[in-house]
Amino acid sequence: MKRLAFAAALILFATAPFWVGGSFYVNILSQILIGAIFALSLDVLVGYAGLISLGHAGLFGVAAYGVAIALNAGLGHLAAVAIGLGLALAVTALFAVLALRTTGIGFMMITLALGQILWGLAYRWVDLTNGDNGLGASSRPTPFGFSLAAPVAFYYATLIAVCLALVAIAVFTRSAFGASLKGTRDQPRRMTALGYHVWMIRFFAFLFSGFWSAIAGILFFYYNQFISPHALALSASAEVLLMVIAGGSATLYGPVAGAALVVVMKSVASAYIARWNFALGAIFVAIVLFMPEGLVPGTQRLLRRGFNAQRSRASAPAEGG
Amino acid sequence: MTTALELKGLDKSFGGLRVTKGVDLAVVPGERRLIIGPNGAGKTTLFNLITGETKPDRGSVALFGADITGLPSRRRAHLGMARTYQIITLFPKDTLLHNVMLSLLGLTALRWNPWTRLDRNEALRERARAALAAVGLSHLAERPLAQTSYGERRRVEIAMALSQNPRLLLLDEPFAGLSIDERRDVQKLLFNIPREVTLVMIEHDMDTALDLAARISVMHFGEIVVDGTRAEVVAHPKTKEIYLGE
Amino acid sequence: MSLWLILTVNSVTLGGLLFLLSAGFSLIFGLMRIPNLTHGSFFMLGAYLGASLVLYYQVDFWLAALAAAVLVAVFGGVLERFVLRRLAGAEQAQVLVTLGVSFMVADLCLMVWTGDPLSIDPPEALSGAARILGLTFSSFRLAIIFVALVIAAALWLLLDGTRLGAMIRAGVDDPQMARVCGIRVSHLFTIVFCLGAGLAGFAGMMGGPILSVYPGLDSDMLPLALVVVILGGTGSLLGSLVGSFVVGFLYNFGQALVPELAYFVLFLPMVLILVARPQGLFGRRAP
After folding, report:
1. Which stretches of B15-146 are assigned E, i.e. beta strand?
2. In this predicted complex, what is the ipTM?
3. Where are the domains of chain B?
4. What is the pLDDT of residues B100-134, one digit of tens each?
5. pLDDT per residue over A227-242, tens digit each?
6. C225, CA 20 to 30 Å: which among B45, B187, C78, C252?
7. Which of A182, A190, A204 best probes binding to B when mutated, by most B CB atoms within 10 angstroms?
8. If contacts are CB pairs under 8 Å, which of residues 92-151 in chain A contact chain C?
9. What is the architecture, at CATH level 2, of domain B1-78+167-186+195-246?
């Protein structure tokens, strides 16, 4: 059943540019996919490590700025991407060393502070980042000779990236290391007594998370061919966190659903509903009240209940009446 | 002969309260030692000091002759120290099999592997099944822990501890919260643990525990006040004072 | 010299405002372990409501501030009683809901009051300057400091001198034990949440003449409140007081002296303190 759904989704996404109705909508899909990668990266920490970060937009933004600054310094795309990734990983390691001193709300606060520091730097270090005016890119890269300038081409590049991310995260969470990580989420004290190095496990998970946030940030930069400090603001970190929780943390497709929800509301619904921000907030509250485990697990639960009800109705036709 | 566990002058205070006062303890390999004492005597804190979850203010801990006082808790598991807890803290959403697999995984290098699927690892699964079989829980291997009884969870915990092939097993009130039948099951389990494993047990339930232990240490207000064979301890005036007097 | 003096007074003033804002957050988190990310919205809502009362209904400043506090307190109470109470212990759900509500409040405020900032005049009596020790200070800024200290004293009296306060402190130290002792913890939660929200709303109105009221005020104030609470330690009134003034100074002096690194100067000490002492300067348990 799951395989079928996955195959259907893959076909839908793969053929999307042909039926979605114009490059505006193809771009929306690209935004959804970039958001999905970002949300998936955060879910590694939120869902599987049990650590809620409110500073991930900082990691996302550092990668983007890394690429932007390198490009503006005259480097080619490959070198720029390498620099962006390297810089983001270094900053992630720093984040991790500082934030992993605590868990729970202490962790939330440190990551929030670190994210704000990066935002402040992007905003104020004008000589480096051009401040509020942001940095742009004159072109998109051409990997293996394919130009990503057109919306459809960029969309397919993003789709490939999402599939890679999904595979990587699926493999990661089902591995022995993934089981160790989930163990530290559920019973950190017991895990230590069992011989696990809880801090180191969380550190590596953080790096893995930071890597995919960086990928999302780099894609985001090339999508807009522009990066500004706003992408590192607290609201951006909050937004991606909401994508994860609303979609369903510790699931593979929850973050994807969450990203779709937020991007659709922001980019599409905003054209029809003036108060889309209010509507989005109301949807979040509704999810918490009726599907607290998130959209994807919640829908699965409802479908299962529907199937069970059908089955019992079919097997007991003589009841009642 | 090297002792299995040797504590010298262990001291621990929390704020103004001295919870462990100059504790000396020597357990020989293969021994079954029982630590008893009224509530608040500091027995669980002593265990925490032995496993490294709490750092002592003074004193030393030696495992089979090696000083482990400064060793972090997680390394002690790799040296053959295993422990069960007063309050069972296992992984409720996972199956019994997965719980045991986690305890096996903790001591192998595999725990760092981020690509091969864990649930397909046949070798680990077999070892986990064997551990569950040894405690009579094979039939519940695929059951989520949350859907098992307290007695069954206690046996899973012991299975997990034994699956690590420990040299020293610390049991913190293993009979707590169990029915009479469950107590008998656990008692049988503990009796059958081979002599290669040294047992140190904290217990309240004197009847079940006294059968298991050869030597008993009585703790009161953070100190070991009586230490000897079962007969010696039972006859000692201080024991009577602590449990019957006051 | 006068620049330092002005900065100092402004820092102490901001500290006073931050104390009013974060004392509530600290109590709420200390007692209920809820990271109330709606707290910035309470501040902004109080400012908008109070400003409207003054500007459109010619209500006296202090009366408006009190009314705003009460209205926000009621809103907080409703939020706690009907939404947050059902989510005890579910940290992610609490984050989602408090953020979701803050979205809704922010958009609602935008709809009602539009995007133009509102400026509130300080009350007549305090609109001038005062001369103390030969130096001139803005009367209103002095008043804020005074009010913050009075409320700090009142809160301290409440926590240390009343039965309610004892129950709150017990709940902060050990909620399970408190329940066992017969303390109606759920009622306590609602009272504390209302108190915290009301304080934040009051702070919003008090800050009006200085900060004015504008969309985005909530997300400007929330991180500052979080820094204060983390620096000072959750559940500690003294911690909130000290933390507020520290942050007030860091923020103002940072902005004035090193504008490029203003956020660095503000958040780095918080990170360092958290790293060295996860429970904050005066906190009891690690968060």
Report:
1. 17-27, 32-36, 58-63, 66-67, 81-84
2. 0.91
3. 1-78+167-186+195-246, 81-165
4. 999 999 999 999 999 999 988 999 999 999 999 99
5. 999 999 988 998 999 9
6. C78
7. A190
8. 98, 101-102, 104-106, 108-110, 112-114, 116-117, 119-121, 123-126
9. 3-Layer(aba) Sandwich (3.40)
